[in-house]
Write a structure and sequence with these properties.
single chain; alpha+beta; Trna Endonuclease, Chain: A, domain 1; 3-stranded mixed beta sheet
């Protein structure tokens, strides 16, 4: 991964953490603290959810979700994605989404 891609990824992780904070959750970028490949992109206060951040123009939904699933370690894998000048979107498996909805009832 080139330097520009890494910087863009870091920027996306910071933006995602800021979005979570705007909605009342505690959140910070995860990589700079532990630095390992297995560390989460965003450390947050949402119980049972692993967040993978993709700040890319060309988004491969299934590859991103697979990476999030591998890294999730018994949590619900969620992918936050954004392109330039577009809003953040969230991708997760339908079963996981419905499970979250049931918990919110």
């Amino acid at each position: 991964m080139g330097r520009m891609s890494k910087e863009k990824g870091k920027r996306g992780e910071r933006e995602c953490a800021a979005l979570l904070r705007e909605h009342g959750f505690t959140a910070r970028r995860g990589q700079q603290f532990s630095g390992g490949d297995g560390s989460p992109d965003v450390v947050h206060s949402i119980d049972g959810v692993h967040i993978e951040v993709k700040y890319v123009e060309r988004f491969n939904l299934y590859d991103a979700l697979e990476q999030a699933t591998i890294d999730a370690d018994y949590q619900i894998p969620v992918v936050f994605h954004r392109r330039k000048r577009k809003p953040w979107t969230v991708v997760l498996k339908a079963d996981d989404f419905l499970h979250l909805l049931k918990g919110a009832k």
